[in-house]
Structures are given as C-alpha cells and as structure tokens.
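ok posting inputs for the adenosine-5-diphosphoribose job
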Amino acid sequence: MTRLSVVKGDITKLKVDAIVNAAGPDLLGGAGVDGAIHRAAGPGLVAQCRTLGGCETGEAKITTGYRLPATAVIHTVGPIWHGGDQGEPELLASCYRKSLALAEQYDLKTIAFPAISCGVYGYPISEAVDVAVSTIREYLEDSKLDEVLLVAFNDEILAAYEQALEG
Ligand code: APR
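and the output
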C-alpha cells in the first residue's frame, strides 16, 4: 500500500524520485517554491523547461532534476484563487492527479508535493489541503507508487495537513 504522509521542510532537499513544482504557465521559474527549485537545480532546468512550450493550468510536465537530490521534477500549474467558483477545486485536483499519473508513467515510486496554489496564487490553505488529501487518497486506491509526501513549508500548512490527514 502507498504511504501518504506529511513532512515539514524544504522540498528542494528531498531525495525522492520526483518533486512537484508549483510552476507558472511559462514554466520559466518564478518566486516561492518555483524559484527555490530552479535555484537548487541550476541552469539546466530552465533550459529544458524552455523546450516544453509552457503548461496549462491543471496540467503537468516532467523534466530531470539536474543538481537536485530528486531524480525528476514534475511541473504543474495550479489555479489562481478567484473566490472558488471558477473551477479552482477541479483544477487543483487535476494538478495532483496529473502529477501522480506522470510519476507512474515514468516508473517513479516516491513523490513529494508542495502546497500547490497556496502562496502567490492565494488559494485558502484549509480548502487547498482538503482537495490535496482527498484527491491523492482517491488516486492511491489503485496505484503503483510507494510513497507520497506532502511538504509543509511552515507551521500553518503543517497543521492544516495534519488535520486533513486525520479526517
Ligand atoms: N519547499 C516547500 N514548499 C515551499 C518552498 C520550499 N522550498 N518554498 C515555498 N513553499 C511553499 C509556500 O509556502 C506555499 O505554501 O509552496 C507553497 C506554494 O506557494 P508558491 O510557491 O507561491 O506557489 P503558488 O501559490 O502555486 O503560485 C505559483 O508563483 O512563483 C510563482 O512561478 C510561480 O507563477 C507561479 C506562482
């Protein structure tokens, strides 16, 4: 059975098969976790990203990890929060599903997610973590993955994940 757990820390330090990047649609880097991943990976990452033709909201694309301890980076573009009635929950769920599916497709067994859309994109944290946990749990009912990690960068997100995982 696949393990789903939460860890506090910096996703760029994790030695897993794939880390997920909360990217922007141009895939060329930005602030937040996107900036941290590009800085840690080095210039090879943005060079490969330039060849991908961007990424639509709710979709995901894969690259190698370059100087990161992780083998691969799965770049997904979360929805910008506009109040919740513009398809945000469905788009956010799609980010998790498409990222998990890409990991499986590439035979990657361990994957770590940041709290997609919970920073610059303004998604309310408790609502976002509920979408994350329920979508991942549903996906894991039938999957070949070994471990999924939810990475909390601060205590507020850690507490929200812990509450969602208890439910
Ligand atoms: N490790 C783990 N989580 C991190 C890290 C890190 N090193 N750095 C930031 N985070 C967390 C933030 O605390 C937040 O909870 O990642 C979560 C997502 O926040 P953002 O990185 O702002 O991502 P998002 O809200 O999806 O916005 C994406 O921001 O940087 C730009 O190019 C990016 O346009 C895109 C947009």
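notes: The domain at 3-166 is CATH 3.40.220.10 (Leucine Aminopeptidase, subunit E; domain 1). Helices lie at 32-41, 43-50, 88-105, 125-140, 155-166.
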